[in-house]
Amino acid sequence: MGADIEGLIEVREADGRWRTGDWLPDCALVRDRYARECLFGYGGGLGLEHDRALFDHRGKPDDVSDDVPDDEVNHSHSYATWAEVAAVDWDAPLADGPAWTHIGEWRPGPDGELVLDGVRWTPIEVLDASEEIFGEDLMPPEWPEGGEVHLDGAVYRPVVVTPRMFAPPDGDRWGPVWAMMRELAAVHGDENVRLVVWFG
Fold first, then answer.
1. pTM score > 0.85 for this model?
2. Which strands form 102-108's sheet, in the order they lie side by side?
3. 3-state SS, residue 74
């Protein structure tokens, strides 16, 4: 079981009232708890610092459009204007230290340099290998400074979670949402386009 995400993009008219400009596309409705946690502070599992999600638990705007539900089923509202989304530093840390349960996997890129290939739930094989290397059973944040594990052609290192890792601005889930907002903002202005989401 889990909560579904719903949402819409609002546009503020000349009279100051907000109306629905468009609904969230299907690509953003996927149950991706890590992206939801990075963006809206809803979900869990990454161990982010309290209130460090980009648009964390903001509630429902007082002047929200009529299409946004207000009942017992729909909850945990949050919102962001296009001006706020456009100003996001997608590489800023969302925690003060490395993730407890996740680890970065680096692999050789086209030029042979190691590049981050993904951030994954730490495989048991990596934990077993780290115990052999460091002499004790440690989670990635507890590894010695500079500690890493080489396994099956990959290098595993502790990582500090950033929004880009789980909700990249050009990704196939939220990228289309930002593109829709950008297009509307080009017509109505950055402060006059707003994303509102909720869960239920």
1. yes
2. 114-121, 102-108, 154-157, 149-151
3. coil
